[in-house]
Amino acid sequence: MHTVGLGLRRCRDDGAPVFFMRKPDFSRAPADISICVNVVLRFILKTVLPCARHPRARPFHRPHGGPDLKFLPLPLRFFLPLLCVLLLAAYITVPIVDQLTLRWFVKDLDTRASLITTTFSESMGDTSPPQRPAHAQTLLDRIVRDERVLGAGICTSEGTWSVRSVGFPAAGFDCATLAQLARKRPPLAQLPYGLAHVAMLPLSADQGGDQLVLLHDMSFVERRSQITRQYLIILFVVLGSVIALITLIIAQLTWRGWLAGVQALLRGEGLVRPFGMGNRELMPVVEELRGMLRELEDQRRVLHRANNIWTPERLRSLLKSDLRGDEIIVVSNREPYIHERTAEGQIKINRPASGLVTAVEPVMRACSGIWIAHGSGSADRDTVDKLDQVAVPPEDPSYQLKRVWLSEEEEAGYYFGFANEGLWPLCHIAHVRPVFRASDWEHYRAVNQRFADAVVSAARTEDPVVLVQDYHFALVPRMVREKLPRATIITFWHIPWPNSESFSICPWRSEIVDGLLGSTILGFHTPYHCKHFTETVDHLLEANIEQEHSTITYGGHQTLVKNYPISIAWPEGAMPPVEACRQELRERIGVGASHLIAIGVDRFDYTKGLIERVSAVAVMLERHPDMIGRFSLVQVAAPTRSSLEEYRTFHERMDKLVQDVNARFGQPGYQPVHLFATHHDAVTLQRYYRAADACMVTSLHDGMNLVCKEFIAARDDERGVLLLSRFAGAADELPDALIINPYSIEDTADALHEALTMSEAEQRDRMRSLRSTVQHNNVYLWAADMLVDAARTRLRERIEARISANRKEP
Ligand code: ADQ
């Protein structure tokens, strides 16, 4: 005979159980049911669970500590618990059903026996069986013709047999025993060939008289209840299998839907509408996923910052991996290469003195793409193609420079007027009153629209990455966003952002802030500038500011406002020998080899603290007369915005001051201040940096200041001291410089003296630390930080677009 069998054949190498299962024999139920339950329980406790403890199995422990069924194949995870529950239900139900049916059959047989007794009594009439034994015998034999009646007999009042049917099955039983069995509940007796129902009923109203004994065959009851059990068990098994199958299918499909949904969310694309679930079911994980993505990106950024030094190659590979080679468009006022026609009719290429160009140009070399800028050179029109484009850098073209042409009137209003007489002094606390003219603003707006249109026409895709540079284009982000809603617009504000009260004097403050909030990312140099901008938004607009995530949501669009400290490209290749540089510069100013020199390199701008610098030199010489004849400041100042009155006046004041100081402390063959108010090429500037004993950066207010970083990068000899204004953004990053307050002329003078007399060991220690910072935080890291954030934002926007598309689906 078969027995129920379910067991473990072996544990696989990975800990998964391999089962065998034998067909259950229902004929043995209910015994088989209990066997079945036992087998299943033992199977789980002794075989499957040990498999989970297999060295290579990875059982998952839920937070509350209970073991999970993760180590089982998915179908079994549903089937096994269900099987257990169903077997338990069968184990409890089948005996109850058995009892019930038995009780009903016993009751039926009791009634039947009583009917037969009544009929027998009536057939006997007034006589008792002992009086007419032959008649009684005939009647009894007729009764047992019924196949269910096994035997019938008459017991006398003395407890002896009077008459019995032929082949009475319980010949060995005496009347007293049968009477006892008949009183039992249920009244059953085990006979050699099966179970029998025993009934013993009086033939007359006289209870002490003869009694009819009837033995009914119970095997049919047993057969029927066996059939009932079989059907019940089949029903349970079928029901269980159907439930398990349906659950499994739904679980599989739901799981696949979730998986596809979550995977698509993580990829930010191809979000499949998960099977049978509305968006509400996905919503709880969306926030979690967003959080996870943020965390991942933060970790990634930490890795980006921690790992090695950023190089153009690394930036290129980041563009490929994170932005999938997306299109990059830069917009700035100043072009990186200016074609000028010389007096001899030749075309020469100039590199402008601009911190923006210094920083962004190496990034563009690495990224390729298009740079849109104002074509300001006299030969610019002669060098572009019909799309107004020219490939640059001239020596090794790697990106396109697209020029936008401006009329003199436009340039006067937009650039000199609103940008440089309005926004520049507004954003720098340099005590020069900003000038706001409505006509300048109109030009500013119109020129911004021209550049925004140039971006839109240059874009080959619907979602380019647009890098908008500086305060000349505050309105461009919004204007581009209107035409290219899916563009990723990174705006970088290269100058400081004033506090909200100062900014509020601008008549078009709201328009400017609104324009900037068209950006996807708005970058400043320092957290301080970010804070000022956020406060300005708070005062001016109804926007939702999320300090925790540094985001501002305005008009349904979110802008990330973050600080990205700008830097320079770390120089590659060998530099000219320091001795040669020192000699060259000293020969230029006509002094000896031991002469001490401080260098200053700036655009000729009133924010750079040039007056304060020269005044500090005078005070230093006054306080340390031994330095007279031994020390000079070499100030290289590139003329800038010379058409503006404020700049012309400043130039004159500076010239006058330099003359005064030189007159006061100068000697034959010695000038304490040398002012070279001309543009110098980058190679010459590097030689000057290497030749100097100190570098003076005395900005009254500055976004970052790249000159100090250039000086540090040029000093691979680990000599030279940097004096750095605390009002330059770089002061946060470079605490090993001598940090000064340029408004305190005396303190600056003392710091200059300290720099000139600093020991070589201290110079080396400070310079080593400064170099490591600038080498690490180079301009490629600056760009990488923004592009990683842009990639993350693009990813999030894709996810949100998919979710809202999903939400709109019926
Ligand atoms: P700038 O105000 O232009 O930049 P800065 O960062 O110091 O100031 O950069 C000046 C650049 O011009 C340097 O690369 C320097 O070498 C070059 N330069 C200066 N004088 C020169 C000369 N005579 N000849 C040739 N080149 C000369 C603005 C903000 C800064 C911010 C940068 C970058 O005002 O705070 O650091 O953008 O974001």
From TrEMBL:
Protein's GO biological process: trehalose biosynthetic process
InterPro entries recorded: Glyco_trans_20
UniProt keyword terms in alphabetical order: Glycosyltransferase, Membrane, Transferase, Transmembrane, Transmembrane helix
E.C. number: 2.4.1.-
Parts of the chain that traverse the membrane: 78-97, 231-255
Highest taxon listed in the record's lineage: Bacteria
Gene3D superfamilies recorded: Glycogen Phosphorylase B
Any one GO molecular function term: alpha,alpha-trehalose-phosphate synthase (UDP-forming) activity
Enzyme's top EC category: transferase
Alphabetized PANTHER family for the sequence: BCDNA.GH08860, TREHALOSE-6-PHOSPHATE SYNTHASE
Family indicated by similarity: Belongs to the glycosyltransferase 20 family.
Name used for this protein in its record: Trehalose-phosphate synthase
Organism: Amantichitinum ursilacus
Lineage of the organism: Bacteria, Pseudomonadati, Pseudomonadota, Betaproteobacteria, Neisseriales
Gene for this chain: otsA
